[in-house]
Write a structure and sequence with these properties.
The complex is a heterodimer. By secondary structure, chain A is mostly helical. Chain A has one domain. In chain A, α1 runs antiparallel to α4, α2 packs parallel to α4 and α3 runs antiparallel to α4. The longest helix of chain A has 26 residues. Chain B is an all-alpha fold. In chain B, 69% of the residues lie in helices and 0% in strands. In chain B, α2 packs antiparallel against α5 and α3 runs antiparallel to α4. Classes of the chains: A mainly alpha, B mainly alpha. At the A-B interface, α3 and α4 of A face α2 of B. Chain B: This is DNA uptake lipoprotein. Chain B: It comes from Cryobacterium shii. Chain B: Keywords: Membrane, Transmembrane, Transmembrane helix.
């Protein structure tokens, strides 16, 4: 993992998450704004997947369990997709909340991935 | 709908519109799905990572059991009619007992659950979501039962 990219990703996912929950509670149906922010989160996750695959070849190896890292990464990639599909099927304010919650979950998972990659013995 | 419990007059006129309760129920189901995914992921890693499974079969079997229960609970909440209601009550009840028992044991005797499960330390590793969720789940089931009958 690349440190600055990880923090960028964490920031975007947190902002997108709070935005979705905020808009949902403010009675907004899923919009280009909330779904677009989630799409950006998803895009960064795909980029993170590429980074994770390439990084070991440049000497940037995970210090923790690679299997655990990829379990988190693949799960994280699936979560926003599931939330957005849900939002497209059921266009209610609660779907906006769910989309936001999925982004917050991604933020937590990215942080865990960072811990697995860098910090051992946790 | 013989005796509407809701004091909101508008909901009695439009019985089909999703109410606020079922709306929040959607979020509850989504969070349950997320927790099912988290528990499954953890269990998957613990069982299939060769360096992991050996040391704590009890904790890891429990992780797998918890994962299955969360998945069944999520499905039961989505269906939530007829026999699925009972399944939802049983699985959610099991989760509450699980998080309380394992949480207490992990505090009293940390050696027993030195390895992580979703329920260790009352689900601290998961932001206490495993502790809060069954309570919300039961509240929702009870609330829904009232609206229905």
């Amino acid at each position: 993992m690349i440190e600055w990219f990880t923090w960028l990703q964490l920031g975007v996912a947190t902002v997108a998450g709070l935005l979705g929950i905020g808009l949902g509670l403010a009675d907004r149906k899923p919009s280009d704004l909330s779904l677009g922010a989630t799409a950006l989160v998803e895009l960064l996750l795909i980029a993170q997947l590429v980074v994770a695959i390439v990084a070991p070849f440049t000497g940037n190896n995970a210090s923790g369990s690679v299997l655990e890292f990829y379990t988190y990464l693949i799960s994280a990639i699936l979560v926003p997709v599931a939330a957005v599909v849900w939002a497209l099927i059921e266009r209610s304010r609660w779907s906006t909340v769910i989309v936001g919650a999925s982004c917050l979950a991604v933020a937590v998972m990215v942080y865990r991935m960072w811990q697995i990659w860098t910090v051992q013995g946790l | 709908m013989t005796a509407p419990q809701s004091n909101d007059a508008a909901t009695t006129a439009e019985p089909v519109r999703p109410t606020r309760v079922t709306g929040i129920g959607r979020v509850l189901i989504a969070v349950y799905g997320l927790l099912a995914l988290a528990a499954t992921g953890r269990s998957f890693v613990q069982i299939f990572d060769p360096e992991e499974f050996g040391p704590a079969p009890l904790a890891y079997s429990l992780s797998a059991l918890a994962a299955v229960v969360y998945i069944v609970a999520t499905i039961a909440l989505i269906k939530s009619d007829g026999p699925w209601r009972r399944v939802a009550w049983i699985t959610i009840g099991f989760e509450l007992v699980g998080v309380l028992v394992v949480g207490t044991l992990s505090v009293v005797d940390p050696e027993l659950f030195a390895h992580k499960t979703v329920w260790s330390f009352f689900g601290r590793g998961y932001g206490f979501v495993p502790l809060v969720l069954p309570i919300l789940g039961m509240w929702w089931l009870a609330r829904r039962g009232k609206v229905r009958s």
